[in-house]
Amino acid sequence: MTTRIDLNRLAPEPGRLSRRLDELAAFHDPEHPGWSREVFSEPYRASRAWVRAQMTEAGLETVVDPAGNIIGRLPGKDPSAPALVTGSHTDTVRQGGRFDGIVGVLGGIEVAQRLRETGTRLERDLLVVDFLGEEANEFGISCIGSRSIAGILAPEHLERTDGTGTRLGDAMERFGLAPQAALSSGWRTKDVHAYVELHVEQGPLLERSGHGIGVVSAIAGIDRLLVHFAGQTGHSGTTPMEDRHDALVSAAAAVLTVERAGCGAPVHGVATLGSIDSSPRSMGVITDQARLWAEIRSIDGNWLRATQKQIVGEIAAEAQQRGVDVDFEWLTDQDPVPTHELVQDVIAEAAGGLGLGWKAVPSGAGHDAAHLARLGPMGMVFVPSAGGRSHCPEELTEVADIARGAHVLAATLVGLDGREQPASIQ
Ligand code: HGY
Ligand code: MN
Ligand code: MN
User: Fold this and answer.
1) Within this chain, do residues 252 and 209 fall inside the same structural domain, yes or no?
2) 119 CA distance to ligand 3 centroid (A)?
3) Ligand 1 center to residue 185 CA distance, Å?
């Protein structure tokens, strides 16, 4: 007969959460405003030892896998049973904030520590994971660690190079990791009973609606685009306007085409310009080469496919009028991933049981959870972001909100612990 767990006793310690948030924030590159702790950077390397030490302090047994994921284990009554898993990432974008991903790792550690401190023994192990390298990086491959755990880190990923021509595989080796082993260190679906990630919303929905807890409905798919424009150089003073094939002007028109495509989406859907470059970059010469990077995101795969077609059609038609050749390269970073209904229900029940209002929200941001969904039923708990800001120094979530989110995470994990795993894991 399982004893009923008093969920109020699992309330996190805000002071300890706050201390850890501040200590982790200290690992950053002072060269940049805000917080920069990019994957493979020295501040990131130093922070990995600190994170592992916090897991140890919380009473977790820790290992680091070949992909650099730090995995803390709180033993359950039956170590052979599929585990409950939580976690997130502690790498940041350049000039980022102090909460994106970090809240999920420190919140997970706090939940495990409260379970241990209250002598609350779950039926199954609880694993808290700090996934390596979640953010988009110069190698063009996000979620390095969680792709490895999900068994989808592929040999061609290790061949991707950064701006200096360094291979991802070499960068991982220099960081002390084992990239070849990371290709075959995926977990099995029967290893995971459920995965729940705590994360800041990184958008305005919860703050605007006045809800402290978000039950994530789906994680957006991300498609990235590189457009190459090829026109004709010429003298900027003597070439009549109607005779020009100016690649940069076609690229400029494409900027507005992409933005227009992201406006008015019937469901969550957005389009963002990344950057534009051109050559020759000299006054007096008409531009003959230009490149444009852009990204579209949506929780609706049909909108993504239709928007890709719309963008390609409009840019190609405009370029043709100008006599500019155009080439498109799409790269799908990840497909949209719905969260599991059972986990959504248990999160909502947990929040309600703790007297907390909640709202179902989509995630426009990508997460490690999208890949963990391949291993077991996946869900996410969001907490509000001040001003909806993220990936910037102004990123802010109040410690009280984080503590409430961690409390809901604890109650959700307890709720899932006692439930049978659903027949279908997605
Ligand atoms: O880019 C993203 O959506 C995530 O923050 N890595
Ligand atoms: Mn994140
Ligand atoms: Mn991020």
Assistant:
1) no
2) 34
3) 24
